[in-house]
Write a structure and sequence with these properties.
By secondary structure, the chain is mainly β. About 0% of the residues lie in helices and about 55% in strands. It has no helices and 5 strands. The chain has a 5-stranded mixed beta sheet with strand order 2-1-5-4-3, with no helix packed on it. Strand 3 and strand 4 form a beta hairpin. It is globular and about 30 Å long. The relative contact order is 0.29.
C-alpha cells in the first residue's frame, strides 16, 4: 500500500489518499467523482491539477 499527500498549485489545502499501485508523473488519479492529473511527484507528495473530462485513455 502506498500513501500519498497531494496539493494544488497555489493552494493551502492538502488531500491524503492511498493507492495499491505506485503513482508517477502524468498519471491520472480518480478520487470519488473528481479526476486529477499528477503534474509532478516528489517522494510521496503530489502536485495535482484538476481534469475536466477524459475522452480517451490508452496504454
Amino acid at each position: 500500500m502506498y500513501y500519498y499527500k497531494g496539493a494544488f498549485r497555489g493552494a493551502d489545502n492538502f488531500i491524503y489518499f492511498k493507492s495499491d499501485v505506485p503513482l508517477a508523473e502524468s498519471d491520472v488519479v480518480i478520487l470519488g467523482e473528481k479526476k486529477y492529473f499528477i503534474e509532478s511527484i516528489q517522494k510521496e507528495f503530489l502536485l495535482l491539477q484538476k481534469v475536466g473530462s477524459i475522452v480517451d485513455v490508452s496504454t
